[in-house]
Specification:
Length: 229
């Protein structure tokens, strides 16, 4: 699964780069970052694939990578890759106001309470930090509607079809400015090759469904309202 996610991870990192390049308030912070490590947290880091991609990104230097992963075996593998990082079983264990950047790819659909998630984000982010949360539109995408039952049967994962508008609304109520963009905008979309899933789960019924699934992958940006942007 990590091999299949490489393209999504690169797109997520590009979203961060785009915002840092466009946003005046965040751009002003860049010169100060080398004065201390920039703490990055991946929620649902599994074995650390996205964190590896972040660490390898040209121009991203002096960063400290950290993760949240409830699966013990996966978390142990991430710790082996990043012995100097901090890895937690639960988001609640992350120290308050300790992270500059939080990322997450396809994890939010496994979290039942958007309110708790948004409040935890607000707790762990530094006042001038931000979060990029990537998620397929599970409430509006036909493939995800079909995959929910097999996901529970095969892996025991209960999924939640959060409405994109609810994610934004609840984030705003928690004290964030929340924006949304496509993970794969048309201007950067490359031809999509079909790679059948190794375990038979997550197959597409048509090319149309496969392309729509890609188009409906979203990135939600969470910015504390205290950050003048």
């Amino acid at each position: 699964m990590e091999m299949q996610n490489q393209e999504n991870w690169r797109a997520l990192i590009q979203c961060v780069d785009d915002v840092l390049a466009e946003d005046v308030a965040l751009k002003a912070r860049i010169p100060s970052l080398p004065n201390r490590p920039w703490n990055v947290l991946d929620i649902g880091c599994h074995t650390g694939g996205l964190l590896e991609a972040i660490q390898a990104r040209r121009g991203w230097t002096n960063i400290s990578v950290n993760g949240v992963e409830p699966l013990k075996l996966a978390r142990q593998k991430a710790i082996q890759k990043f012995p100097n990082g901090c890895f937690f079983e639960k988001l609640e264990q992350v120290p308050p106001q300790s992270m500059d950047l939080v990322v997450s790819h396809e994890t939010l659909y496994l979290i039942d309470s958007l309110e708790d998630f948004s409040n935890q984000l607000m707790r762990i982010l530094r006042p001038d930090g931000g979060a990029f949360i990537a998620l397929g539109s599970h409430a509006e995408n036909t493939a995800w509607m079909r995959w929910r039952a097999p996901l529970r049967e095969k892996y025991g994962h209960v999924s939640y079809a959060h409405q994109p508008m609810d994610i934004q609304r609840i984030g705003e109520e928690a004290g964030f400015d929340v924006d949304v963009r496509q993970l794969h905008p048309p201007s950067r979309t490359k031809p999509k090759r079909y790679n059948p899933p190794e375990d038979g789960w997550g197959e597409f019924l048509s090319t149309k469904e496969m392309l729509e699934h890609r188009e409906q992958k979203l990135v939600f940006g969470f910015w504390p309202k205290s950050l003048a942007r």
